[in-house]
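Aim 2 progress. For RNA exonuclease 4, the working sequence is reproduced below.
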Amino acid sequence: MAPELSSNWKKLQAQLKQESAAKNERKRKAIPTERQQNTIAKRRRLEGKTQIATSISISKSLSASTKSRSHEILKRKRKMGLGASTESPAESSIPPTTNLASWAEDNDISARDLADAYGSNRNGNPTSTAATTVDKINCGLVEDVEIGKYIALDCEMVGVDGPLDRSVLARISIVNFHGHLVYDSFVKPEEFVTDWRTPVSGIAPRHMVTARKFDEVQTQVAEIMKDRIIVGHAIKNDLDVLMLTHPKKDIRDTSKYPGFRKYATGRTPSLKILAAEILGLEIQSGEHSSIEDARAAMLLMRRHKSGFDVDNAQRFPSMANGGARPKGGGGGGGKKKKKGKRG
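Predicted C-alpha cells for this construct:
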C-alpha cells in the first residue's frame, strides 16, 4: 500500500505544476508566430517612417526659422557694396536721424532723387549709400546725369617704389549732390605697382585690363571739378594723387569740419566712424569702395550743410561778403560830421 502524501506535500506539488505551466506559457508567448513577426516588422517600418517624417518636419521648421532670422538680420544691416542696394523697409531698425525729406524740399530736391541715390525710407532718412540702381563700374563719365554745383569724390590708391610705398591713383569715383554716380574709372599707374593693397583698396591686377591712362582721367576729372564745390574726406590726399589743385574756398572736407571732432576726442575722425555715428551706416567693413565713400562724404556734408556754410564763411570772410572792399570806400560806414552852429 502506497504511503499517503501529506497535505503540505500536495500543496507543494500543485504549486510546482502551476509554476511549470506558467513558464511554458511565457515561452510560448515569447516565440511569435510568422504572422506576428510580419505584423511587428510592419509596425516598426511605420514607426521608422513616422520618425523620419518628424525629423524632416523639424529640420524644415528650423531651416525656415533660420532663414527668417537671417532675413531679419539682413534687413537691419545697412552694409554697402558696389552693386545694387534695394530700399530698406520703413519698419527696419534705423537709428534716429535728421529728417532729410523736409530739407530736400527746401533745397528743391525731389523725394524720388533722394530715394534713388540713398535708398531713403518714407521719413526721408537714408538707409544706405549704395544706389537703388546698379552702378556702372569703370564707366567713365555717366551720360544723362546732371552734375550740379556740388560733387563728392574719392580715390583708391596702390603702392609703388617698393619699401617707400608711395601712393598713386588706381581708381576715382565722383557723385553729384543727390548721390548719383557722375564718373568712375580705374586708372593704370605709370609706374610698377609693388603693393596693390587689395584688402583695403579693392584694386587688383585684373582691373588694369580696362583701366584708363592717368592723363586721360586727370583731364576729365579736372573738367568736372571746374567751378564746382568739391566734397570729400581728407581730400588733400585725393588731390595729391590726381596732381590737381582746387580753390580752398570751394572745398568741403568732412575730416576737418569742427563739428565732427567730438566723434574722435578732438582728433581727425575717420569716415567710417562718422558714417556710423552720424548716419547710422556701416561702411569700409572690407574692401573699400570709392563710390561708397564719396556718397558717405556727400551725405555727411548735406546733413550738416548749414554748419559747413558757416564754417566756410568764417574761414573766407572776404569771399562770403562778395570780395574785399577798400578802406573808406564809400560804404557809408564813416562817422558823420557834425554841423557847426551858425554864427
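The CA atoms of residues 272 and 283 lie 6 Å apart. This observation will guide construct design in the next reporting period.
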